[in-house]
Amino acid sequence: MADTIEELDGILAGAGPAETDNEKYWQAVRAQFPYNGSIHYTNNGTIGILPHMVLQAQIAVLKETEIQDGDTGGVAYPAPHEAHGKLAALINADPSEVAITRNSTESMNIIALGLDLKPEDEILTTTHEHYGGWSCWQHRHAQFGNPIRKLDLYDPPEDEDEIVRLFEEAIRPETRVLSFCHVTCTTAWRLPVRKICAMARERGLITVVDGAQSVGMIGVDVKDLGGDFYVSSTHKWLFTPKGTGLLYVDDAAQDKIGLGYYTGGGRPTARRFENNASQSHAPLVGFAVAVDFHNAIGTSLVEDRGAAMAKWLKTRLSDIPGVRVWTPMSRALSASMVSFSIAGMTSSDVGTPLRERYRVHSRGLHEGGYHGARISCAMHNSYEEMERVAGAVSEIAANRC
Ligand SMILES: Cc1ncc(COP(=O)(O)O)c(C=O)c1O
């Protein structure tokens, strides 16, 4: 396992062309993840598993800072770190527009509690939100009375413009905020964020994009997407340390939001939303290494590999009697996760045997009225693992009663 980016570059160069179907290359990538593989981990969509390099960077800084003469003040209070610049470059933002928070849930709460809204301003969200992207609005409603409405996206059309039209038709005069996912945690749909944001901007609405499932999985260019706020749980697909995530506040949206809780204040950049009190420095160090690790492979290659593997799995699962795949085949409307149901079975009917009998760690589908499982196709996953998933689902579906 590589300790440095230079070593990683050398290992990857020796594994042949950096292509989606060069299995030797992907085995070299997998070898950078120290987890022992006793269970097939296909739940990156909940939380990632650290590459050796990211883990070691944190251990090293912890050792260095904790084993010293007690003068740890310089490292325990966060200062601008190279992690901010690296994250900003990855998503095409200015460093002043990014805050490193703990996760999407925290970022969403910062937005929901900090937005400058009148009590009657409505928040329009969807039936596909994760609790982490939804409970903050419930809280806003309880605190300030803002009404919330959910657009029903159960089984939406497989056409970007039709999806935008659904959003457009749901907007009412009182609607002020659109809050929706980039990649849904339920069906693993990739929503046409750029088009939805453009439509919302024409109507003077504020857009909040929950990209918990996107940064590190697919290319994210916040300027091209054009939303006001973008959040992500980088600990998932970007393999940053657990307890790290993104809050992006577009420069033009800085005055639409204030501090919902006191963090230390500061100049009106996104950094004012970071917790400025004492904390561990190690996650920021690990964060910067994780972005380097990702860049050594490259966003488009990671995205293409995940899409190819997910397509393969969708094709296999679609052929199994009783299985309904919810994730579209369309590349534009999907990414690196696959969600499916088995007729007559609950989430635990599917997920429990997958885990206990077949040693596959999936994620149950709960939100939005779905029952079934979700499989992540991350850079450390292999086609053998997906073959195992397909075989297991086939047996589980055949034995249903
Ligand atoms: C779309 C979406 N939003 C928010 C979250 C919450 O993520 P976190 O627990 O990292 O805040 C998740 C987690 O899976 C998610 O999929």
Please describe the topology of this protein.
Elements: H1 5-13, H2 23-30, E1 40-41, H3 52-66, H4 73-76, H5 82-91, E2 98-101, H6 104-114, E3 122-126, H7 131-144, E4 148-151, H8 160-170, E5 175-181, H9 193-202, E6 206-210, H10 222-225, E7 229-232, H11 234-237, E8 245-249, H12 282-297, H13 299-318, E9 323-325, E10 337-342, H14 347-356, E11 360-361, E12 363-365, E13 372-376, H15 383-398
Parallel strand pairs: 1-11, 3-4, 3-5, 5-6, 6-7
Antiparallel strand pairs: 2-8, 7-8, 9-10, 10-13, 12-13
Helix pairs in contact: 1-12, 3-12, 5-12, 6-7, 8-9, 13-15
Bound molecules: pyridoxal-5'-phosphate.
Description of the structure:
With 401 residues, the protein is of the alpha/beta class. It folds into two domains: 5-50 and 298-398, Alpha-Beta Complex (Aspartate Aminotransferase, domain 1), CATH 3.90.1150.10; 74-292, Aspartate Aminotransferase, domain 2. Helix content is 40%, strand content 14%. It has helices at residues 5-13, 23-30, 52-66, 73-76, 82-91, 104-114, 131-144, 160-170, 193-202, 222-225, 234-237, 282-297, 299-318, 347-356, 383-398; strands spanning 40-41, 98-101, 122-126, 148-151, 175-181, 206-210, 229-232, 245-249, 323-325, 337-342, 360-361, 363-365, 372-376. Strand 12 (363-365) and strand 13 (372-376) form a beta hairpin. Helix 8 (160-170) runs parallel beside helix 9 and helix 13 runs parallel beside helix 15 (383-398). The longest helix is centred in the C-terminal third of the chain and has 20 residues, at 299-318. The protein is globular. The chain starts with a helix and ends with a helix. The model has no long low-confidence stretch (mean pLDDT 94).
